[in-house]
Amino acid sequence: MKTAHLYLLLHVLSTASVLVNAFDPITTSVIVGLGATLGKTIYNYLHESCDKKWIAFNATGLKTDLDDKLFGQHIASRIILKAVSGFMSNDNPKKPLVLSLHGWTGTGKNFVSKLIADNIYREGMDSNFVHVFTSTLHFPHPSQNATYKSQLQQWIKGNVTSCERSMFIFDEMDKMHPGLIDSIKPYLDYYDKLDGVSYRKSIFIFLSNAGGERIVETALDFWKGGRDREEIELRDLEMSLSLSVFNNNQSGFFHTSLIDKNLVDFFVPFLPLEYQHIVQCAMAEMKDRGFDPDRDVADKVARDVVYFPKSERVFSVKGCKTIASKLDYFT
Length: 331
What we know:
Elements: H1 2-19, H2 25-46, H3 59-69, H4 74-88, E1 97-102, H5 109-118, E2 130-134, H6 135-138, H7 145-162, E3 167-171, H8 185-188, E4 203-208, H9 212-224, H10 238-246, H11 257-260, E5 266-269, H12 275-288, H13 295-303, E6 307-308, E7 315-316, H14 323-330
Parallel strand pairs: 1-4, 1-5, 2-3, 3-4
Antiparallel strand pairs: 6-7
């Protein structure tokens, strides 16, 4: 459909240019003006811009994606849906939305970030307004912390100046050098504008394995007590999670003002995944590849995953992280 529209626009534009020499000056001016307008239309049609055509929140889409594609994360699904929906429906938020996602590898933190982007930006994670920072890649050297702080401030300011609906994702916060993230504290605070720039409609998402041990302990306690994992509530984890992250001197959140000044809106725990969730991940992966989901194959994949504690084999060590590669082996 998009290609057909483009061909039509190009045809009209080329026709207009051919006709330029066939008319008097006044008519020619009209045709040239028409051509310029069409040229701008084509540019806007192809080039992502910071407007509702390219940025439009799909609340129903996000709910459906969380329900159908994120497994074993009832707390995270509920918080993410309410937080993002409330923020995106507010035309005048008091501050940016700040989410901190915590849990062991393979539990869905990066995946949820993608689902959020997919349901806000037409181009999803490929949008020019979605920016991903990975600590070990973008901030590898502790000795350059001062330089990183300055660069990070300039990068965020420049991108929000271009589009107030920007999203910034910080991966591997547990590997970030302490103190670095404090450089962006002013952008997350309750300011109308800073140097003429408003950050209040932007979204900041932090991803971290820090606090994962506390989440696992809680999930294991519930399991040992014979209680269903769906009984675990945010209140069972949020306070201890924020404190453990704040006091972890190996984390980018160590004694950070972002936590001290309550600028993180939600600490979102991602629970360790059980056998049933690994099966669901395998079935979903098969569906994504265009295969008919095969429960027998999914069971083989799930049985090949390493679980802990060793004797009970309750939780997957790597969550759904290795499912794609294991599926290649069993299909």
